[in-house]
Amino acid sequence: MVKLQHGEYISLGKVESELKTCIFVENICVYGDSTKTYCVAVITPAEIGLKDLAATLGVTGEIEQLCMNREVTNLALKRIQEHAAKSNLIKFEIPTKITLVPEQWTPESGLVTAAFKIKRKEIQNKYKAEYTKMYI
């Protein structure tokens, strides 16, 4: 649980489990800064789903290129927000900004457990710069 600036509590695990059902989300780590009014997320996209999403924009390329493409990221955010609304998430639970990262989270990388549960602290440390950028 995290408490946002206006006192709203967010169950990060609940939000993540709802958003992982989105077709292009392989893995996700939602983050909330208690000095801000919104949450953000780092997402490891499912390659096929992301390529299909990018194709609707006429964009092609490898997953690394698609993750860095602003148009693809903006469309992914829009679809995430639509999916979240359909999943009955409350407005403040829905990430306002996202970062797509091409690296797969594996037990070997130290970002997930052997049961593939995310290691929140390790992910937050690895993507600290990305989380900071999303809050600027």
Describe this structure in words.
The strands form 2 sheets. The chain has a 3-stranded mixed beta sheet with strand order 3-4-5, sandwiched between helices. Strand 3 and strand 4 form a beta hairpin. The two termini are 23 Å apart. The chain is built from 6 helices and 5 strands; from the N terminus they run ββαββαααβαα. The protein is an alpha+beta fold and 136 residues long. The model has no long low-confidence stretch (mean pLDDT 93).
Give a summary of the structure in a few sentences:
With 136 residues, the protein is of the alpha+beta class.
Average pLDDT taken over every residue: 93
Kindly state the percentage of residues in helix.
25-40%
Determine the structural class based on helices, strands and strand pairing. Answer: alpha+beta
Task: Give the strand order, joined by hyphens, for the main sheet.
Answer: 3-4-5
Secondary-structure element string? EEHEEHHHEHH
Instruction: Name the shape in a single word.
Output: globular
What proportion strand? Answer: 15-25%
- Total count of helical runs of at least 4 residues: 6
